[in-house]
């Protein structure tokens, strides 16, 4: 099951965000655009960027211009990101279905 890998990728993404915020001297409560929709939008953009980098690395390997280790790392990161996105989507759909079945 890929759920532990997805959880690990999500944890790494949050740790990276916290580290970049702390290195910029921004406290977590003071993050610009700290609404949930802004966070979700940024996470989706970052996911798309990560997956795109994996595709670019694979294309470079096919043309013989990339190191195989870098390609494997990029593709693995892209796969973990995709697993995280799918896991979040599944949770959102499950929450929506649960809300829809609630009695009024």
What does this structure look like?
The chain is an all-alpha fold. It has one domain (3-9, 34-100). Helix content is 78%, strand content 0%. The chain contains three helices and no strands. Helix 1 (3-23) crosses helix 3 (68-100). It starts with a helix and ends with a helix. The model has no long low-confidence stretch (mean pLDDT 81).
What order do the helices and strands come in, and which of them pair?
Elements: H1 3-23, H2 36-62, H3 68-100
Helix pairs in contact: 1-3, 2-3
Count the DSSP helices: 3
Beta-strand residue percentage: under 5%
- Helix amount: over 70%
Would you identify the regions where 5 or more consecutive residues have pLDDT less than 50? none
First-last Cα distance: 36 Å
- By secondary-structure content and strand pairing, the structural class works out as mainly alpha
Largest sheet: none
Quaternary structure: single chain
Topology as a string of helices (H) and strands (E): HHH
Apparent shape: elongated
Total number of beta strands: 0
In total, the number of domains comes to 1
> Overall mean pLDDT score?
81
Radius of gyration: 17 Å
How would you summarize this macromolecular structure in one to three sentences?
With 104 residues, this protein is mainly α. 78% of the residues lie in helices and 0% in strands.
Which labels suit this protein?
104 residues, 78% helix, mainly alpha, single chain, 0% strand, elongated
């Amino acid at each position: 099951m890929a759920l532990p890998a997805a959880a690990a990728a999500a944890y790494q993404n949050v740790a990276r965000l916290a580290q970049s915020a702390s290195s910029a001297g921004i406290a977590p409560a003071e993050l610009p655009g700290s609404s949930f929709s802004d966070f979700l939008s940024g996470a989706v953009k970052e996911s798309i960027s990560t997956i795109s980098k994996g595709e670019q690395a694979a294309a470079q390997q096919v043309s013989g211009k990339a190191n195989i280790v870098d390609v494997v790392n990029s593709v693995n990161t892209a796969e973990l990101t995709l697993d995280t996105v799918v896991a979040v989507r599944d949770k959102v759909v499950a929450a929506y279905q649960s809300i829809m079945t609630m009695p009024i």
